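worker-03 picked up job from queue 'complexes'. Input manifest follows; two sequence lines, order preserved.
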Amino acid sequence: MAVTLDQTIAQKQHTLLTRVFASQTFWVVIAVILACLFLSVATDSFATTKNLYNITRNITFVAIVALGMTFVIITGGIDLSVGSVLCLCSMVLAVTMHAGYGIEIGIAAAIATALIIGAFNGILIAYLGFPPFVVTLGMLSIARSLAMVASNNTVVFQFGPDHDKLLALGGGAFVFGIANPVLYMIVLAMITGFVLRWTKFGRHIFAIGGNEHAATLTGVPVRQIKVAVYMISALAAGLAGIIQTGWLGAVTTNLGNGMELQVIAATVIGGANLAGGMGTAFGAVVGAALIEVIRNSLGLLGINAFWQGVFIGGAILMAVLFDRLRNFRRNE
Amino acid sequence: MSVLALANISKHFGAIQAVNDVSLSIEAGQVVGLMGDNGAGKSTLVKMIAGNFRPSHGTMQMDGKELILHKPVEARQHGIEIVHQDLALCNNLTAAANVYLGRELRRGVGPFRILDYAAMYKRAGQIFAVLKSETRPRDLVKQMSGGQRQAVAIARTMLSQAKIVLMDEPTAAISVRQVAEVLNLIRHLRDQGIAVVLISHRMPDVFDVADRVIVMRRGRKVADKTIASSSPEEVTGLITGAIEQV
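worker-03 finished. Artifact:
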C-alpha cells in the first residue's frame, strides 16, 4: 500500500499511551498517588482536610519557584539565587508596607526588585559570558545580604495600613476553600505550560537548550531570551515571596534558606534535564508535590526528621535512574 | 544571466591575503563544486557570499544588481541560504521544529499568536516529499540518520525562495549510503532551479553531482571548468599545485 503524504505528515513516533508511559513525569505522578494511598491507609492523620490543606499549600511555594526555574533549566542554565531572591523580595514588600505604603506599592516594589535582579543575572550570563552557576551563586549571597541590610536583620511582622489585605492574599481561601497559594500555583502552572508549548518564545527556549550554537545560526535572539529566562526565574521567586509573606504573616532573613536545592530537585524529579532541552510545567509541580508528600509522611509516620534529606535525595536519584534505564533500553 | 556574479573579489586580514582577485559567476539550476586545500580561501569566499565578511575589494552582483551584505540575515533575505557543516540542528526538537527554527509559523490575532503546529508539519512534510526524503516531520532529530539530518538542514533552505544554497562539507562525516542520499538531495535542489555551491574535499562527490568545478589555491582561483572537460587527476594536481593553472 502506498503511503500518502498526509499519512507521513501525520505519522507520530509514539501513540499517546506509549508517550505517557515513557515519561518520567507519569511515574512520578504514580509515585505520589501510591504514597498518598498508602498514607491514607497507614495513618489516621494523612487524609484529613487539615493535613491535605497544609500539604497543598506547602507544595505551592516550591512549585511556583520551580516553574520559573524550569525556564532556566530548559535553556541549560541554573539559578541558585532563587531562595535569596525570594527572601529579598519578601523583605522589600514587608519593609515598604511597614513604612506605611499600601499593598499595591509594596507588591510593585517587590516585583521590580525581582526583575532587576533577574536582569542583572541574565545580562552577566548572556552578554558577558559568565557561567550561570557562578553568577547566581554570587547573587545568592548578595540578595540575602541585601535582605539583612533592608531589615537590619529584624523580623518584620507589621505591614502598615494594608496589613489585613496582605494576610488575606496569602493566607485566605477565596474560592471553594482552596488555599489561595494553590490557586496562584495552578494559574501560574497553566501560563507556564502554555508559554512553553504554544509560543515562539517557548520554542526558542527549547532550541537554546538543545543546541545554542544552532539557535544563534538560525537567527534565534539567544541573548535576549537568556536574559528573559533569568528574569522569569527571579520573578517567580519574587511572587512566591509575596505570597509566602502573606501566608506567614512575618518575614525573617532566613526565609527561603536552602530553597534553591529543593526547587532544583523538584524540577529534576519532574523530568527536567540539567543539561538543557527538556522540562515541563506539570513536571515541576509534580516534583514539588512528591517532595512535600515525602516530607509530610515522614512526620506522620513518626520517622525522625533528620532522615528527610535521605528520602528526598533518594527520590532525586530514583527519578533520574528511571530516565537512565529508559535511555539504555532505547540505545540497545 | 547569472544568479550571482563576483568581480575581482579580494579579502585580506591584516597582511594575510585570504582571497585574491577572484571572479566567478553562478547560474541557476547549476551545481558548482568549490574545491581547494585547507587555507586555500574557500571558507573566506563563502563567508563573503553569506554576509559574514565584507570583501576588501571587488563587487558582488545578484541578478545583475549590486549586492552589499552587512550581516548573514541580509544574505538570507536576498535568497542566499547556507547549510552549515555541523548542520545547526537541535536534537531535542522535531524535524519540523528544526526546519522552522527562527521563522516559526504562527496563527492568531495581533499580539495573541500561537505556534501553528499543523501548518508547520504540513509544509515540512511537503518539502521532504519534494526532496524525496523519508524524513517524517514529527520525528525527533535525535533519532535520525546522518542523511535524514542533512535533509532537515537542506529543507530549511527551501522554506523561502532560495536562489543559492551554499553547502559546507555536507558529506564529510556520514556513511557511504548516506552520501548517496545527500547527493540526491542536492540534485533535487538543482531540479528546483536553485544554484548549489558545494564545498567539499571529496573528489568523487563533486564529480558525481557537480556541473562545474572551481579550484582555489592560496587565495586565487586556479581553475573554473565543466566537469566533463576535467578529471579527478587534473583537479588533484590543481589543488596541490602540481598543475599551476588552467
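worker-03 released lock.
The domain at 4-89+161-240 of chain B is CATH 3.40.50.300 (Rossmann fold).
Chain B has a mean pLDDT of 89.
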